[in-house]
Amino acid sequence: MPIEVSPIAHYHMGGVRVDGSLATRIPNFFAAGELVAGANGANRLSGNAITEALVFGRKAGEEAAARAMASKGRSPPGFGREGLDLVRSGGGRTAERCAGMIAELQGVMADLVGPFRTRQGLERALARIGAMKTAMGALPPDRHGAFYEPRVDWFDLRSMLLVAESIARAALTRTESRGAHQREDFPALDDAWTFHQSLSLRDGALVLDRAPVVEDARMSEVA
Length: 223
Fold this sequence. Notes:
This protein has 6 helices and 4 strands.
């Protein structure tokens, strides 16, 4: 019987910023694998996922274990309280709509924030993302059993909207074409944009910054 064949975007050239021990800026939180930022440049080499998972995963595991042994697993006072309070909360009224909004968001990202982008398309995408953030509300639906799917969808959608907004805002700001990020209204490569864009949450809002591209001397010798 026929099977559906369709292109899918499964990776973006970004991730969580870590130090040499694969620790993030969140205390006692480590990242590994394709989640780590900086392993790729403006494009991604295919076939690296398993290697990244094994190498970074072992390093992160060893560092996390050493940190746990040294600190006896203690986190700073109040750490994670905001997230735990959200997980414990309820009362939202969008239980039936979250699955539909997830599908809508996937369509918005595929149509307007794909490899070929324009200012108008990115602005439309950000407007739709903002509207969905408002529509989903600040609280998850009430619990109805241990595995109430609409509640799970709400938390999934919340994370997806944050990632989607991060990608769209960075793409809108970068007024050039580089690697897998192509601006149809800025088709040329611009050396002034030879830096990484970084995003962080400050008071609930995304803030854009930049980080330098560090060139490895050994790679220059190979090149």
